[in-house]
Amino acid sequence: MATETVRGKQVIIHFDGERCIHSRHCVLGRPDVFVPNVEGEWIHPDAAPPEAIAHIAMSCPSGAIRYEFVDGHAAETAPVVNTVRLRENGPLAFDAALTIAGAADGFRATLCRCGASARKPWCDGSHAESGFHATGEAAIQKSEALAARDGPLTIDPQKDGPLKVSGNLEIVSGTGHTLNRVTETFLCRCGHSKNKPYCDGSHRKVGFVSG
Predict the structure, then answer these.
(1) What is the CATH number of domain 83-206?
(2) 47, 90, 93, 115: least buried by Cβ within 10 Å?
(3) Contact of 169 with 181, CB cutoff 8 Å
(4) Confidence check: pLDDT of 163 > 80
(5) Residue 162, preceding bond cis, omega within 30 degrees?
(6) What is the pTM of this model?
């Protein structure tokens, strides 16, 4: 699916359907901008102020919605705190200046942790069909405050193994509690770790294939 680009008077909206995990922040937050279940044009950048468009775009966890200003002013910038949020029974939602599998990938991405996605390492919604269960409220680990909380974050999917994450990162629960602070970690993406969200080597036992 090609990225849809819709140009308004002040804002250009880009929508990448392959990244979308249907969190529905867009159609619930601004149904005048993102009009669901219609034929033809469904994205209307001029239906809301630019600030509202920016807010909705940045609330999209997958990065499926991105925006830029027509006048060339800077749009989205890197967050001041790098985070990965554990979505209940769903993917890992990253917010940072991301490099994934060697390529720059914007500031927001949802990566598969059920093992069933056909678009690994990105989530494609397969967790819902596979009946994947993983809490968004994992145990809190004792951790020290990071010397810096922002900066580039590199995610290197290991072949037939976990996601190696390098850089300043706070692991956050679905309800906003900081669970851990790390500068390097290995996160499960086979769906079988007994220590989610961290890898415990289960990918080898279950014969996980990353594709």
Answers:
(1) 3.40.5.90
(2) 47
(3) yes
(4) yes
(5) no
(6) 0.94
Q: Which of 152, 174, 208 is nearest to 91 (CA)?
A: 174
Based on DSSP, count helices (H) and strands (E) in the chain, helices before strands.
Answer: 4, 11
Contact (CB, 8 A) for 82 and 146: no
Question: What SS3 state is found at 133?
Answer: coil
Residue 15 near residue 65, CB atoms below 8 Å: yes
Euclidean distance between CA atoms 206 and 211, whole angstroms: 15
In the beta sheet, which residues pair with residue 186? 164
Dihedral in degrees, nearest 10, Cα atoms 83, 195, 199, 153: 10
Just give the CATH number of 4-69.
Answer: 3.30.70.20
Segments making up each domain of the chain, as ranges:
4-69, 83-206
Helix (H) or strand (E) holding 109: strand 108-111
pLDDT exceeds cutoff 90 at 74? no
Main-chain phi, psi angles of 33, to 5 degrees? -90, -45
What tokens appear for 123 in the block?
């989530």
Angstrom distance (rounded) from CA 110 to CA 12: 22
Alpha helices in the chain (DSSP H): 25-29, 50-58, 126-130, 202-206
Residue 2, pLDDT above cutoff 80: no
